[in-house]
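Hi all, posting the design record for the shared folder.

TITLE: backbone redesign
STEP: 1 of 1
STRUCTURE INPUT:
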């Protein structure tokens, strides 16, 4: 609504308003004086012709002055009220926008299998900073999952791949924030909805920049050029690839595809990061594609 420089100089609103009021108050008596001078000759002439003129003139003049003052005071009062409201709104907006983005380690979480994951707080969300590796739900029931190219070494580095039926554990798709779907997540955590992913992306600067801030830097795992990768969010996204519904594996080293809780019979909503872009994209994939899972804290 307001440009940043204007917000940062919001005190100028009140200064300008006070200046306007002072100028108005100073100008009003001068205006009255001018009006008085214009009618002075007429008043003198009327007084000489009618000795009782001033006795009649003073009450009328007082009444006219009262009528002139009242609208001016109303205008000034309204201007002050509007100025105060504008100042309050601008100050509030500025305070909200001036808040620094909180990014800090948030401890660890352990799944049923004993895998320990680093976590990170980004704004007011707490995310896993590693891909899920669990082969069991939090109650010990087995999860259907895959290692990329059926190579368990890949699962240790990049996490496991899960089809929606597995990571959702049969739950209906959810677009709510929070999603309310625990699915394959450890106890106290859940599968993020598209709305929760969008909140993260917005906190990191929007679609065009968030991917770079989420990706691990360098080319130890990502293929060159790994565009825009800074990992300043400490999210440490790795290019784990995916397994398509037709059972073909693809994109190890070039893309990561994260699950969301939004799924129906036609597609599933995913978040994708690429090695040659700083984008973070929400897209629709086949409802049976197996992808990486990141969980967010309840």
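Okay, here is what came back for every position:
SEQUENCE:
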């Amino acid at each position: 609504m307001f440009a940043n420089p204007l917000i940062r100089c919001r005190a100028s609103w009140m200064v300008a308003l006070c200046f306007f009021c002072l100028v108005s108050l100073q100008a009003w008596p001068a205006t009255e004086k001018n009006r008085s001078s214009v009618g002075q000759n007429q008043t003198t002439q009327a007084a000489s012709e009618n000795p009782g003129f001033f006795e009649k003139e003073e009450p009328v003049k007082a009444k006219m002055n009262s009528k002139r003052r009242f609208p001016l005071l109303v205008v000034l009062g309204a201007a002050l009220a509007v100025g105060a409201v504008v100042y309050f709104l601008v100050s509030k907006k500025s305070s909200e926008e001036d808040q620094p983005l909180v990014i800090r380690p948030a401890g660890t979480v352990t799944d049923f299998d004993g895998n320990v994951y680093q976590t990170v707080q980004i704004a007011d969300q707490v995310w896993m900073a590693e891909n899920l590796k669990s082969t069991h739900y939090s109650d010990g029931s087995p999860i259907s999952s895959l290692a990329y190219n059926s190579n368990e070494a890949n699962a240790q580095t990049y996490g496991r791949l899960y089809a929606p039926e597995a990571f959702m554990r049969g739950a209906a798709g959810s677009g709510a924030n929070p999603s309310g779907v625990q699915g394959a997540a450890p106890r106290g955590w859940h599968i993020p909805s598209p709305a929760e992913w969008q909140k993260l992306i917005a906190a990191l600067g929007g679609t065009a920049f968030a991917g770079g801030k989420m990706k691990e830097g360098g080319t130890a795992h990502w293929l060159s050029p790994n565009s825009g990768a800074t990992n300043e969010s400490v999210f440490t996204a790795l290019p784990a690839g995916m397994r398509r519904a037709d059972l073909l594996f693809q994109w190890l080293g070039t893309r990561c595809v994260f699950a969301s809780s939004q799924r129906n019979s036609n597609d599933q909503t995913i978040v994708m990061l690429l090695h040659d872009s700083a984008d973070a994209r929400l897209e629709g994939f086949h409802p049976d594609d197996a992808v990486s899972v990141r969980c967010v804290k309840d």
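COMMENT: The CA atoms of residues 209 and 278 lie 5 Å apart.
Let me know if anyone wants the other runs.
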